[in-house]
């Protein structure tokens, strides 16, 4: 009799994951259904199953490692006996995600089952994300039919037990050396037959309706946030619990603000005279009360000689945190605006100012001109 480790192509010290991976690969390769009922493949398949049934059991594997085949061929074992293992259990464990109903994985039950979860994409404004909001949404969802109370049968009648599966919802059929369990084809796995269906739900026990829900959006939510509403999904079958409703939030881009974590960024134009002399300007904000005046404006102090790109940070005036009492900052970026459409007198004053301003008033220009001159001299060799 061949060594079980050799059959599966694994080392004696392999872990459970490697053992299962090797078994899956070989079992898929040599499955009788994939080899047209070939007897050689069926024998190899049986040998692989026997090896895995022993090595996947910690106690049997220890006995096999110590005594070899004699350690597992006791009264419940024997060659080809799989050590008393239930083949349906083995395939449910290893192939539940591949074969589904065939080997017992993902079985449909005739009893109550949980309803499906639902997804709802909700757009909100930055203002709603900032302060929180109460919004109304309309969600199509499966509801228990009121006429038949979810039975699917015409009022005054009841579903009957399926005669093919005896109400189990599953039927077994022999295929080769093992049996296969499938959903009952007559009742579709429900275990019941509706002979006189309800006219409102047509025997399904559920109807799809529009539901109106009031949803509370917490302050501080960000784009991509997800909110779970327990029990607001589809109704469960046969009296099972409802599924959940998941709201996926997307924040509509704002025309004034950009969000960076908890900070709010805003670019504000500053008159050239204010930037030169210093002074106060108004900047928008999202919240009233003590943070700004009643028109959602804040006063920002512009330092003397401010340049485009300079930022003024207003502490605690940004977004609230969803999980703490922290708040971000409002970051105001200054954009120095050059005046346009000047009158003759204004132009005269600007020329006079230009004549009066020297390097001390324009240090960046003087520095740039010096660098440019050195560059030209290097290029021309002058």
UniProtKB/TrEMBL annotation:
- UniProt cofactor(s): Zn(2+)
Binding annotation for Zn(2+) 1: 145, 148, 198, 201
| Subcellular location per the Swiss-Prot or TrEMBL entry | Cytoplasm
Q: How is the cofactor bound?
A: Binds 2 Zn(2+) ions per monomer.
Q: Which residues does the UniProt record annotate as the domain CR-type?
A: 132-210
Native species of this protein?
Phenylobacterium conjunctum
Q: Name one GO molecular function term.
A: oxidoreductase activity
Q: Family assignment?
A: Belongs to the DnaJ family.
ZnF CR-type residues are: 132-210
For this protein, the record's CDD domains field holds: DnaJ (cd06257), DnaJ_C (cd10747), DnaJ_zf (cd10719)
Transmembrane parts of this sequence: none
Question: What SMART domains is this protein classified in?
Answer: DnaJ
| Comment field on protein domains | The J domain is necessary and sufficient to stimulate DnaK ATPase activity. Zinc center 1 plays an important role in the autonomous, DnaK-independent chaperone activity of DnaJ. Zinc center 2 is essential for interaction with DnaK and for DnaJ activity.
The record describes the protein's role as: Participates actively in the response to hyperosmotic and heat shock by preventing the aggregation of stress-denatured proteins and by disaggregating proteins, also in an autonomous, DnaK-independent fashion. Unfolded proteins bind initially to DnaJ; upon interaction with the DnaJ-bound protein, DnaK hydrolyzes its bound ATP, resulting in the formation of a stable complex. GrpE releases ADP from DnaK; ATP binding to DnaK triggers the release of the substrate protein, thus completing the reaction cycle.
Summarize subunit and interaction data from the UniProt record for this chain: Homodimer.
Which residues are the signal sequence here?
none
Location (main, coarse): cytoplasm
InterPro entries, alphabetically?
DnaJ, DnaJ_C, DnaJ_domain, DnaJ_domain_CS, HSP40/DnaJ_pept-bd, HSP_DnaJ_Cys-rich_dom, HSP_DnaJ_Cys-rich_dom_sf, J_dom_sf
Keyword annotations of the record: Chaperone, Cytoplasm, DNA replication, Metal-binding, Oxidoreductase, Repeat, Stress response, Zinc, Zinc-finger
Protein name, UniProt field: Chaperone protein DnaJ
Q: Where are the CXXCXGXG motif repeats?
A: 145-152, 162-169, 184-191, 198-205
Q: Which Pfam families has this protein been placed in?
A: DnaJ, DnaJ_C, DnaJ_CXXCXGXG
**Boundaries of every J domain copy:** 3-68
